[in-house]
Design a protein that fits this description.
The structure holds two protein chains of two kinds.
Chain A: H1 34-45, H2 54-65, H3 70-80, H4 84-93, E1 105-110, H5 113-117, H6 120-131, E2 144-149, E3 161-163, E4 166-168, H7 176-188
Parallel strand pairs in A: 1-2
Antiparallel strand pairs in A: 1-3, 3-4
Chain B: H1 2-6, E1 10-15, E2 18-23, H2 28-34, E3 59-62, E4 69-70, E5 81-83, H3 87-101, H4 118-126, E6 142-146, E7 149-152, H5 161-169, E8 176-178, E9 185-187, H6 201-205, E10 211-213, E11 226-231, E12 240-246, E13 249-255, H7 268-271, H8 274-278, E14 287-289, E15 295-297, H9 300-313, E16 318-322, H10 328-341, E17 346-348, E18 356-357, E19 365-366, H11 374-379, E20 383-384, E21 396-400, E22 421-426, E23 438-441, E24 450-453, E25 458-462, H12 475-485, H13 496-506, H14 515-518, E26 523-524, H15 528-533
Parallel strand pairs in B: 1-5, 16-17, 16-21, 17-20, 21-22, 22-23
Antiparallel strand pairs in B: 1-2, 3-4, 3-5, 6-7, 7-10, 8-9, 11-12, 12-13, 14-15, 14-23, 18-19, 24-25, 25-26
Classes of the chains: A alpha+beta, B alpha+beta.
């Protein structure tokens, strides 16, 4: 990441900070590989019953594929002996689970009070311009999805933008082209 | 206070100035009902185990406690003083209702639930009849939840009764709340629908018009319907139901609470039985065969005189075939007629079907016997058989049918062709009936009063929901007149109560029963052995 990016720790678990591998449009089976089965066993072993393992497994699905498909929900339901409907309920409760495929970089722009006062709406507008998308839509190259977010809890550093699991703080509309450039560079391996 | 109540079996408290004593552990909402005070509630339903206290409409003031308390989960305690309608409680309720109405479409004029809607009722009670909301309403649309159930998301107040019914009573975790906050809605897993033999109950528990039965949609306004207490004829479980009718047509069946039989529920097979009550080309007047062999209409007096004289002149024995859809009283009068004529007994068959149990209330079960009164027929001396014995040459055949649609348990067209005389009592003129020497039109169970005896020997009463077809009369009335004309004892039974009391006095297992004590919840037979052994 370039110097302008101030990554904060978004997730408590180490894997949540790793670079997302898929383009966000894949829908790989979760538990058919050795790695997947290992992850399933590890997560299940932490809890006395099946149901609490649901959130970590949804996390895993999103980590692996970039989103949580209904197919993945059915797979998790099968692994935990829950009904698919029950998994669907939990997955839709949390807005942080992407129920549709997203780009390799999910850009969430806060427009809540502090960010709104610090031109958050203009930042959002600028991101949409730079990536050539509409809110929630994935760019044709599969790299970017820009969405409006409610308070991300970093009001002291408005406007705050979350890119995948990293926070970028004190964003102004003028800084947006550089941020998008940096993401392009990362995607192309120019600044690995 | 709590130390006191913990050691006592009952507690006494005051709710809206009414002193009431309830068992320890009773919730204030239930205690209030005993005191004659209905506390508004949405998420609480007496048949659903959990009480999430999430609708916040049942908040009440308790003296000595600063905050309003949700009465559905608050334990009644000794010396507690509760006020359900303080200004504070009313304001809280009003605020909740106002929030519920923010996105509500207020489409009561086209809503099936209008007139029996708890949102309508409470909104009216709060007295705030104008919305303060200026923003446009969120529009959610509608969805199909099951093949016969629609979901109007805009009307939904997310009380989760339906979700909890499916999870806790039907034990089928297929219905869930999706999304959250003001976007929350009820849903099944994408691409699936509810497919449970009991899922129709989610419509009954819905306090508003969010869940509706498609076959009832736009059919009738609540205030235009008549209602009668009845028994579901769909199987031998004998679920208590209310029959709602409009313009002499049954429009829906709803479960009626009976803790000994079906709790608050019924199965979807049973709901479909209403079609049966409306169907069929009915037998509306007595028909007698004349010298030319044609069936000709007659009035009751002529018809009964003729049948009585025919029966008294015929020798050679006879037998009966009955429907297990016939009520106890009719079967009893038929048995008296058979005894009077010295005929051998009667037989019946029972249509069979798949079973399904409501796991959260296992006594409610769609039973294999698809008829309401097989137990009663057996108790009253009729023999249950797999296939009906063909009457011999010259024998008299008496048929007592009840169902309006094609009844697979009744004889087919070829049955009884060697019989010397066929007396047919039925609701509808079947192929077999066309060969009868006399057809006496009788009412369906929706058009009369009577009793059924369910699978475990519970005798339950049903009331009349529809007008009779033509001049059809209850079979017990017709048969008791015939018995009288043939010299049997007892007057013609003009009331179901008389017919029942006469039967109870004459039937082992029913000793001491009478119409009055039967009430609307029914009574069990004296001894289960009688049910198993029959009356013989």
């Amino acid at each position: 990441m370039s110097e302008e990016l101030h990554p904060s720790v978004a997730g408590a678990q180490p894997y949540m900070r790793e670079e997302r591998q898929g383009s966000g449009t894949t829908d790989e089976p979760l538990f058919e590989s050795d790695e997947g089965r290992e992850r399933l066993e590890k997560i299940r072993s932490r809890y006395p019953s099946a149901r609490p393992a649901l959130l970590p497994l949804l996390n895993y699905a999103q980590e692996k594929n970039g989103w949580v498909s209904t197919r993945a929900m059915e797979e998790i339901a099968g692994a935990l002996d829950l009904t698919p409907a029950c998994v669907h309920s939990v997955a839709t409760f949390y807005t942080m689970y992407n129920k549709r495929p997203v780009g390799r970089y999910l850009i969430q722009v806060c427009t809540n009070i502090s960010c709104h006062l610090n031109r958050g709406d203009d930042v959002l507008e600028r991101f949409l311009e730079e990536t050539g998308t509409r809110p929630g839509e994935t760019s044709e190259n599969g790299l970017f999805t820009v969405v409006e977010a409610e308070c991300l809890g970093a009001c002291g550093f408005a406007t705050v933008v979350q890119i995948n699991e990293d926070y970028v703080e004190n964003v102004t509309p003028e800084k947006v082209p550089d941020i998008v450039d940096a993401l392009w560079a990362r995607a192309e391996g120019r600044d690995a | 206070m709590s130390e006191q109540s913990g050691s006592q079996e009952a507690v006494t408290l005051i709710i809206d100035d009414v002193e009431v004593t309830v068992p320890t552990g009773t919730k204030v909402l239930d205690a209030a009902e005993r005191a004659g005070v209905v506390v508004p509630h949405y998420c609480y339903h007496p048949g659903i185990p959990t009480r999430p206290a999430q609708c916040r409409v049942c908040l009440v003031s308790v003296e000595g406690q600063g905050k309003l308390q949700p009465s559905c989960v608050l334990d009644a305690q000794q010396d507690m003083v509760v006020h359900t309608a303080t200004e504070e409680a009313k304001l809280a309720r009003k605020s909740v209702i106002e929030f519920l109405l923010v996105n509500h479409p207020l489409d009561c004029p086209i809503c099936d639930a209008a007139g029996q809607c708890m949102l309508q009722d409470y909104a009216f009670e709060t007295g705030q009849l104008e919305s303060r909301v200026e923003e446009p309403k969120l529009v959610m649309g509608r969805d199909r939840i099951a093949d016969d159930v629609l979901y109007f998301a805009d009307r939904c107040i997310i009380c989760t009764r339906c979700v909890r019914f499916m999870r806790e009573v039907a034990r089928d975790d297929a219905l869930i709340v999706a999304q959250r906050g003001h976007r929350a809605y009820i849903d099944t897993f994408p691409g699936t629908e509810l497919d449970n033999p009991f899922h129709g109950n989610i419509v009954d528990v819905c306090p508003v018009g969010a869940l509706v039965h498609e076959d009832f949609l736009f059919k009738a306004r609540f205030w235009d319907m008549d209602s009668a207490s009845s028994i579901c004829p769909g199987c031998s479980n004998g679920c208590n139901v209310s029959v709602a009718s409009k313009e002499n047509q049954v429009v829906r069946l709803k479960p009626r609470h009976n803790a000994a039989v079906n709790s608050y529920w019924m199965c979807d097979h049973g709901r479909g039985q209403l079609v049966m009550a409306n169907r069929g080309i009915r037998a509306e007047v007595p028909l007698l065969r004349d010298e030319d062999g044609e069936l000709r209409p007659a009035d009751w007096k002529d018809a009964l005189d003729r049948v009585a004289s025919d029966l008294s002149e015929l020798g050679g024995g006879g037998r009966a075939v009955v429907s297990p859809h016939a009520c106890n009283e009719s079967l009893h009068q038929l048995r008296r007629l058979l005894e009077l004529l010295g005929f051998q007994g009667g037989e019946f068959r029972v249509e069979q079907g798949g079973e399904a149990t409501l796991d959260g209330f296992p006594k409610l079960k769609l039973r294999a016997d698809r008829a309401p009164n097989a137990t009663g027929a057996e108790l009253l001396g009729f023999e249950r058989v797999e296939s009906l014995a063909e009457p011999g040459p010259g024998e008299v055949l008496v048929v007592l049918g009840e169902r309006l649609d094609a009844d697979p348990t009744l004889p087919d067209a070829a049955f009884g062709e060697h019989a010397g005389y066929v007396l047919y009592l039925g609701t509808r003129i079947t192929e077999a009936a066309r060969r009868a020497d006399a057809i006496l039109p009788v009412t369906s169970s929706a058009e009369m009063q009577g009793t059924f005896t369910n699978w475990e020997g519970r005798v339950q009463r049903f009331d009349q929901a529809l007008r009779e077809a033509g001049i059809a009369r209850p079979a017990w009335m017709v048969l008791s007149r015939l018995v009288g004309l043939l010299g049997g004892e007892g007057a013609t039974r003009l009331e179901a109560a008389d017919a029942f009391d006469a039967m109870a006095a004459d039937t082992s297992g029913m000793e001491g029963m009478d119409w009055l004590s039967l009430g609307l919840k029914g009574l069990p037979l004296a001894s289960p052995a009688d049910v198993a052994g029959g009356a013989s």
